[in-house]
Amino acid sequence: MPRSASRTVALAALGALLTCTVAVVVAARSFPESYSPARLSWPNASLLLGWARFDAGWYADIATQGYGYTPGQQSSVAFFPAYPLAIRGLGVLGVDTFIAGVLLTVLCGGAAVVLFTRWASHLKGEDAARDAGLLLVLYPFAFFLYGAMYSDALFLLLLVSAFYLLERGQLLPAVLLGAVATAARPVAPALVLGLLARRLEWKHQRGEKWTLWDALPVLAGLGLVLYVLYLWHAFGEPFAFAKVQSAPGWDQRPGWRTWLKVRWFQGFSSSMTLADGLRLVGHAAFSLGALALVWPTVKRLGWGYGAYVAAMVGMPTLSSKDFMGMGRYLLAAFPLFLTLALLLRERPRLRWGVLSTSAVLLIALAAAYGAGAYVS
After folding, report:
1. What confidence score (pLDDT) does residue 2 get?
2. What is the pTM of this model?
3. Would residue 65 count as lying in a domain?
4. How high is the pLDDT of residue 3?
5. 355 partner at 20 to 30 Å CA-CA among 236, 274, 339, 348?
6. SS3 sequence, the chain?
7. CA distance linking residue 196 with residue 166, whole number of Å
8. Predicted pLDDT at 274
9. Alpha-carbon distance 96 to 40, whole Å?
10. Between the CA of residue 176 and those of 182, 183, 212, 374, what are the distances in Å?
11. Is residue 357 part of a domain?
12. What is the pLDDT of residue 1?
């Protein structure tokens, strides 16, 4: 009896999880002085220190202390509430904050991979779903699904769940999950557009007329709306999450310098290190590659998913000063992995070449992250 796509991908994800964990632990032990916000809680725990880096400190602070906002300075309001609230929920059960963050990522990442494979199988069959699932679990930045204390795993799980339910005709549950997703990351317009466009396309494919009920995906933006209202009530600044992006150190001020990526070009200087150059070129390449897959997504998955991918990739690409972080942001544009699988279906050697290269990069980036290097 042939192995199902979900089982194959789940086993591959388990292997990737274990391999990345080993890489992170070895790297963390090799660079014991690298900073981790979890050091005060677990000073000698290589696993925890390796997975709790950078923004993990912000999420832990929100989960334990709540939000703070100081105009003109980096503040915790930049981070949306769904993930730290989930961490706080585990904390109520007595789980250490950083353990809760890592555990939440592992659980959500695993569930997201399985649901993604089922979504892909529903659309294009078992073979395509298997290939797409392998591309996802071996994606170079997929280590953010395997333990890194970031919101990406939870966000991806919510996104995939919403669209999977939408494909099965369960509109209201899909919208409710979408609303939770827009409380996890500041990309509500992309998700609302995607759910609405796909719902209308789905009805059209079934030969059914559109009704007012089909506009329900608009309410998926309620997560963002509620966060905006909270910020207005708590700090008198409804869009504080956007304003703090221009604070020193983040320097993501909206405007033509950001849109034209002036800081990206300035990064290529005589003092640039090899690591700096790889980051600059790598994230830009991932961004442009994802944008190049928008039209193939329209042709193979429909204009609904094409619109979703265009918005989900376009928004962070436009708002980033130097493409930094785009590698992990592209996890949210999950239909791209199915599109790429379909493109590679007739090119088995190229497919295995892509998977092998991705696997090597995945392990290397996980190790770099565990060592405290800023990779995304």
Report:
1. 44
2. 0.95
3. yes
4. 60
5. 274
6. CCCCHHHHHHHHHHHHHHHHHHHHHHHHHHCCCCCCCCCCCCCCCHHHHHHCCCCHHHHHHHHHHCCCCCCCCCCHHHCCCHHHHHHHHHHHCCCCHHHHHHHHHHHHHHHHHHHHHHHHHHHHCHHHHHHHHHHHHCCCCHHHHCCCCCCHHHHHHHHHHHHHHHHCCCHHHHHHHHHHHCCCCCCHHHHHHHHHHHHHHHHHHCCCCCCHHHHHHHHHHHHHHHHHHHHHHHHCCCCHHHHHHHCCCCCCCCCHHHHCCHHHHHCCCCCCCHHHHHHHHHHHHHHHHHHHCHHHHHHHHCHHHHHHHHHHHHHHHHHCCCCCCHHHHHHHCCHHHHHHHHHHCCCHHHHHHHHHHHHHHHHHHHHHHHCCCCCC
7. 10
8. 78
9. 12
10. 10, 11, 17, 34
11. yes
12. 33
Q: What is the pLDDT of residue 160?
A: 98
Residue 376 within any structural domain of the chain = no
Could you list the residue range(s) of the whole structural domain that residue 117 is in? 5-336+347-370
Residue ranges of the chain with pLDDT lower than 70? 1-3, 270
| 113 domain-assigned | yes
What is the structure's pLDDT at 307? Answer: 97
Give the pLDDT of residue 226. Answer: 97
